[in-house]
Amino acid sequence: MPLTIYHNPRCSKSRATLALLEEAGAAPRVVPYLDAPPPAARILELASLLGIPVRELLRTGEAEVADADDLPDPADDAALAEWISRHPRALQRPIVVDDDAGRACIGRPPENVRDLLP
C-alpha cells in the first residue's frame, strides 16, 4: 500500500498529515508539488479519485486564485487542471493517494488520511 502525499512543507496541515502518516508506520512518497507540479492529467486523476470536480481542488483563498485574470471556467475540468498545473499554489493540500487501492483524500483535517491506512 504505497502512499503518495502532495506536500507543502510550509503548510501546517501538510506537515501534520505527513507526521500522522509516518507515526502510523507509513513511508509515503513525498511530492513537493510546488517544486514539481503534477501535470494536468494527474490533477484530473486526483479529482476523480477524490470523487470531486477539479474546481474543488482550488484553494480559493489563495491570492493567486482570487487575483487571477486567466482562470478558466470552473466547470471546465480539463482547462482548470491545466491552469492548476501552471499555478501549483492554487492546489488544495495536502492530498494523500493510495494508487494501488484507487483512493485519495485531502488531509484537512489531517485525521482524514486515517481512512487510507490499514
Any overview of this molecule?
With 118 residues, the protein is an alpha+beta fold. It has one domain: Glutaredoxin (3-Layer(aba) Sandwich), CATH 3.40.30. The chain is built from 4 helices and 4 strands, in the order E-H-E-H-H-H-E-E. A 4-stranded mixed beta sheet has the order 2-1-3-4, with helices on both faces. A hairpin with a 4-residue loop joins strand 3 (95-98) and strand 4. The radius of gyration is 14 Å and the shape is globular. The protein starts with a strand and ends in a 12-residue tail after the last strand. 31% of the residues are buried. The model has no long low-confidence stretch (mean pLDDT 95).
Q: What does the secondary structure layout of this molecule look like, with pairings?
A:
Layout lengths: L2 E5 L4 H12 L5 E4 L7 H11 L12 H4 L10 H10 L8 E4 L4 E4 L12
Parallel strand pairs: 1-2
Antiparallel strand pairs: 1-3, 3-4
Helix pairs in contact: 2-4
